Amino acid sequence: MSSFYPAVQIAVIALVTMALRFLPFLIFGKGKQTPKYISYLGTVLPPAIMGMLVIYCLRGISFGSIGAFLPALLSVVTVVLLHVWKRKTLLSILGGTVLYMVLLNIM
After folding, report:
1. Counts of helices then strands in the chain (DSSP H, E)
2. Cα(74)–Cα(78) distance, rounded to whole angstroms?
C-alpha cells in the first residue's frame, strides 16, 4: 500500500507534463501559423524575466560599506562582460556565481 501513492504521484506528474507539452499543438494546431501575440510574448518575456531575477537577486544589498556591495557589483559586471564577449548564458552565469562566491569568502 505504501508504494501505491508514489506511483500515483509519478503518474499524475507525467500526465500533467505531457498535457502541457501537447497543449500548444492542440490549441494552435500543427500546421497553423503561431499567433502574433504569442510570438511577441516569446520575444519580450525572456528579457523581462531576466530583469526581474536580477532585481530579485540584488534586492537585499546594503550600500553601508564597500564590502557589502562590491562582490555583487563585480559579479554583475562580470556576468554582463562575459555575456557580451562570448554570448554563452551558462558561462556568464557560472562565471559571475563563482566570482561572487570567491569574493564573499575572501572579503
Report:
1. 4, 0
2. 6
Contact present, 103 and 89 (Cβ < 8 Å):
no
Task: Judge whether residue 15 has pLDDT over 90.
Answer: yes
Tell me: the pLDDT tens digits for 79-91? 999 999 999 989 9
Rounded distance, CA 50 to CA 88, Å?
15
What is the per-residue burial (b if ≥16 Cβ within 10 Å, else e) of 25-40?
A: eeeeeeeeeeeeeeee
Where residue 29 falls (left for φ over 0; alpha for ψ -120 to 50; beta otherwise) is left
Q: Which three three-digit cell numbers place residue 30?
A: 500543427
Q: What angle do CA 93, 72, 68 make, to 5 degrees?
A: 155
Q: How many CA atoms lie within 13 A of 44 on its CB side?
A: 6
Residue range 45-63, pLDDT digits in tens: 998 998 998 899 889 888 8
